[in-house]
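in:
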């Protein structure tokens, strides 16, 4: 047990709704001086203002519906002093289908506060360091609503909502066979994707099958997904060396899927209700500190493959190899809490399952295929283990509902200070607190007086969040 160690916390506030405006006529006025850092312009003056923009300028676009056509942003800011193009009032400047921003060649530009009502946004490979922040994307028709192909992009505090057609909310891609590098995606709200097809309605697609070996170095963190029902993959990773952490998925058909790629890390996510949890294929992944509870399907699925190692970057499933599944808390009303193999030719190989808590009914671990599997320090409760003896204890972990209803360890839990092995890949817990000394089993390291990360709510994400 550890005493009085606090973790990083996020400020919380109540989000407000976005007001929509009708089409209005905008008068022509003079462009403010180029040296003015904050400028409010009309529609007629916008192009001239953008043509004169300098690093540090903020150009605000009045309320109303923008006419069809592209708004060209051809000037660049700097990393320390970007050019910001913003709605004058949050959510009250509307772009409809046929309206968008042309960011060809732009660097260090911020797009802020617009309502893309059926409109799409493309950040092309020739751009760099573009930030898309505090916008609302409604509907969007077929295809990707936002497509990121430029390096060092940031997508944060946006709402993506009410898409009914095929196509993703957010696509991270790149030029040709390359991949956009170092994309940051955080504090976004992905809501109500209602596409009813069997494939092609992800909330986030990170890469493509033919880009799976590209090192994207993306970080997808602190996003909320609700009713992500457009696909069985809410977050679909198809590239390598990414981090997916601290996201909340609630009441969704979609899961976190490592569909292609290697060396990805899935850490500290909370998956509550809905259908599935985490599914992965490929090599050298770390799946740690996640909480999956109350879903109707499989909390963890370790994929077998039609191919052992996909050196040709095909669309085939690649068998999972050399992966670590450790310190997760998996609570289900079903059997099959951890599932190894799913019937394809090549079995998962060299997968380590360590210090996880499994609670459910029936057989908690189902191994249909698997070679060189390692089991150590797991706790099972409520059903039969299904894993080799010596790899688990059958004991009540004494879980209690903490902040936001998330299951955590109670005082006196047999999980406290009893983890097996060292596992240096996992040095923090779900809350970002240290796992120093003897580690606890499951996602939560028990602290007296410690703080608790809770599942995200709509107040924590989107345009009006802190």
């Amino acid at each position: 047990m550890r005493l009085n160690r606090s973790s990083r916390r996020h400020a919380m506030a109540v989000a407000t709704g976005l007001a929509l405006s009708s089409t209005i006529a905008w008068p022509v006025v003079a462009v403010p001086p180029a040296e003015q850092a904050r400028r409010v312009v009309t529609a007629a003056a916008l192009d001239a203002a953008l043509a004169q923009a300098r690093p540090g300028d903020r150009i605000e676009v009045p309320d109303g519906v923008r006419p069809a056509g592209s708004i060209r942003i051809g000037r660049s800011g700097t990393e320390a002093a970007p050019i910001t193009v913003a709605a004058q009032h949050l959510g009250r400047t509307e772009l409809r289908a046929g309206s968008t921003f042309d960011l060809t060649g732009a660097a260090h530009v911020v797009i802020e506060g617009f309502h893309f009502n059926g409109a799409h946004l493309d950040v092309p490979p020739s751009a760099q360091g573009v930030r898309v922040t505090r916008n609302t994307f409604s509907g969007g028709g077929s295809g990707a609503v936002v497509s990121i192909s430029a390096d060092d992009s940031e997508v944060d505090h946006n709402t993506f909502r009410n898409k009914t057609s095929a196509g993703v909310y957010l696509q991270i891609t790149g030029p040709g066979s390359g991949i956009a590098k170092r994309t940051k995606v955080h504090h976004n709200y992905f809501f109500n994707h209602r596409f009813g097809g069997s494939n092609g309605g992800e909330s986030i697609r990170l890469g493509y099958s033919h880009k799976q070996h590209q090192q994207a170095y993306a970080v997808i963190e602190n996003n909320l997904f609700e009713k992500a029902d457009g696909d069985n993959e809410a977050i679909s990773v198809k590239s390598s060396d990414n981090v997916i952490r601290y996201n909340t998925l609630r009441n969704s058909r979609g899961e976190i899927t490592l569909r292609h790629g290697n060396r990805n890390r899935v850490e500290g996510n909370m998956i509550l209700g809905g259908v599935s949890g985490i599914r992965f294929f490929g090599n050298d992944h770390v799946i740690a500190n996640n909480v999956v509870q109350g879903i109707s399907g499989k909390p963890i699925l370790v994929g077998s493959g039609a191919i052992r190692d996909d050196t040709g970057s095909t669309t085939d499933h690649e068998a999972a190899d050399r992966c670590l599944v450790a310190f997760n808390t998996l609570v289900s009303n079903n059997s099959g809490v951890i599932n190894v193999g799913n019937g394809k030719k090549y079995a998962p190989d060299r997968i380590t399952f360590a210090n996880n808590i499994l609670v459910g009914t029936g057989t908690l671990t189902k191994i249909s295929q698997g070679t060189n599997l390692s089991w150590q320090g797991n706790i099972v409760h409520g059903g039969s283990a299904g894993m080799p003896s010596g790899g688990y204890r059958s004991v009540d972990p004494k879980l209690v509902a903490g902040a936001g209803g998330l299951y955590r360890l109670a005082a006196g839990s047999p999980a406290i200070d009893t983890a097996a092995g060292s596992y240096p890949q996992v040095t923090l817990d779900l809350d970002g607190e240290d796992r120093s000394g003897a580690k606890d089993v499951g996602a939560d390291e028990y602290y007296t007086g410690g703080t608790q990360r809770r599942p995200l709510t709509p107040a924590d994400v989107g345009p009006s969040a802190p």
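note: The longest strand covers residues 233-238.
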